[in-house]
Fold this sequence. Notes:
Elements: H1 2-9, E1 18-23, E2 38-43, E3 59-62, E4 65-68, H2 71-84, E5 88-95, E6 98-108, E7 114-122, E8 137-142, E9 148-154, H3 158-162, E10 166-173, E11 179-186, H4 188-191, H5 201-220
Amino acid sequence: MRDWADQIIHQVGPTPSYEIKLLYDPKGRGVIYPNHCVLAVGIHESESGPHMAPDNRYYIRAGAHTVASRHFITDAIWAKRHFAKPRLTHAFRPKPDYHQAIQLGIVALTPAPAVDVEISLFPLGELLRENSKYFPLRIPMIDRDNPFFFDVTTWHQAEERFGNSVRLSVTYKDLANNSYKFEKAVSIANEMAPLVIGSDPMEKMAKALESIEKLLKKHWC
Length: 221
């Protein structure tokens, strides 16, 4: 009977995660006749909807009934499915408590958490080679509230120490154990803004010129 139930459930695509229980003893909550049983199927909450029935249609619950889904509802579920997938990208930034260091971060673009994240760089830059035994970096979970940043180089000779032709590779999974990967070339020169320490440089230049002007007037007047 379990095999029969598995075949029926797998006609739904994609097949949701489920559990099957065969009940032979009602335990005082009704009657199950001899040589009969109740087959209970529990469907887990799905991150991969909408699920298509064997008749190639989509259905939703409407109160106590099951009805065919309208197009706009199906489209909304498809959109939710897209945003339910974890999407990661990268970003460079100055280290918050020490601006002479540059960090590379892996950040989430969608609310869904990414789990079992592995981060690799090819090749490793000058400051990372001595820690090559820690690569690929393995992070249990990354989401919008928990990005992951790590030091990769310094402002002084940033591009030379990080590398000119570096590829970043990130693999991860979602809560349904589906696998994802993104890989791209990363560049300090193209992705970092110029370093600014203290107040605006233009303001400093204006004050310096004013000071020079005062000295010249005092000397020549």
